[in-house]
Amino acid sequence: MTLRVLVAGGAGYIGSHTAKALKAAGHLPVVLDDLSTGHEEAVRFGPFVRGSIQDAACVTRAVREHRIDAVLHFAANAYVRESLENPRKYFRNNVANTVHFLDALLEEGVKTIVFSSTCAVYGIPPSLPIVETTPTKPINPYGQSKLMIEDVLRWYGKLEKLSWMALRYFNAAGADPDGELGENHEPETHLIPLLVAAALGQREPVRVFGTTFPTPDGTAVRDYIHVADLATAHVRAVTHLAAGGASESVNLGTGKGTSIREVIASVERATGKPVPVIYGEPSPGDPPILVADPARAHALGHRFEHDLDSIVATAVAWAKKGTHRA
């Protein structure tokens, strides 16, 4: 099965890695991106349409010109702290614009979509590991905006015959093992690239919030998943739907929790340098542990090939290539 896939937000971090994975699997990725946060140099695996998901005319032209079969939707704002400071932006861009996007797709008969969701929909989970049936209680507008679209997808699935899958990421990390793609966020908020840059002398010491959590070493524990494994999971998800598979929300995490101190140690092994860190108080509402139960992902055939040291090694290799890349 060869699919022509519209990759909304395909010039961004996860979107660009997924476009590469689609191409490698024999599909055609057509990137739709307004470049507000993405990078045009990351669009190298198929056609590029510069435009926004809120522009129905642009979406319609892209679908018709490239005869789109399915959609991967990555186009959203994704900073938790910013969502608390500017909730309007998150509900406008992540919710309202996505509804306009879905409506434009449905008008053109495109009824297969994989949505980039997040473990932030769970808020502070009452039990661990987190399964898909764990209550969803977001504690910030970012997580709420993603959950609202999952609800829209569910209703459109029932009433509009939309075939959908929402992939709830845990902590995306790492860079393309081939060295073609990596992280270049502005601002950068992800832990691993910050630690790597600090170790390499490319930035100031990293602030780590919290050393008294009820975890083995006092620092927060998270589930880190390599961006290449995420990309492969998206390819599998869209082909699953195209073949008639069921619509659902699925966790994408490895099931292995890693503390911040353990990540720091891995970065120091990979760089051979100490990581300058400043420890501070935990952020209000920050969960001590977030770890996925990957059973459902495994049942769908997803396999996560990269461990923490592999993730860090690719991040270090990317950082050494320079910071002004896709």
UniProtKB/TrEMBL annotation:
Keyword NAD: yes
Pfam families hit by this protein: Epimerase
Subunit structure as annotated in this protein's UniProt entry: Homodimer.
Enzyme class of the recorded protein, top EC level: isomerase
Keyword terms: Carbohydrate metabolism, Isomerase, NAD
Protein name according to UniProt: UDP-glucose 4-epimerase
One Gene Ontology MF term: UDP-glucose 4-epimerase activity
Cofactor needs: NAD(+)
Family membership noted in the UniProt record: Belongs to the NAD(P)-dependent epimerase/dehydratase family.
Catalysed reactions, as listed in the record: UDP-alpha-D-glucose = UDP-alpha-D-galactose
PANTHER family listed in its UniProt record: UDP-ARABINOSE 4-EPIMERASE 1, UDP-GLUCOSE 4-EPIMERASE
InterPro entries: Epimerase_deHydtase, NAD(P)-bd_dom_sf, UDP_G4E
Keyword NAD set for record: yes
Domain NAD-dependent epimerase/dehydratase: 5-253
Enzyme Commission number, as recorded: 5.1.3.2
Pathway the protein contributes to: Carbohydrate metabolism; galactose metabolism
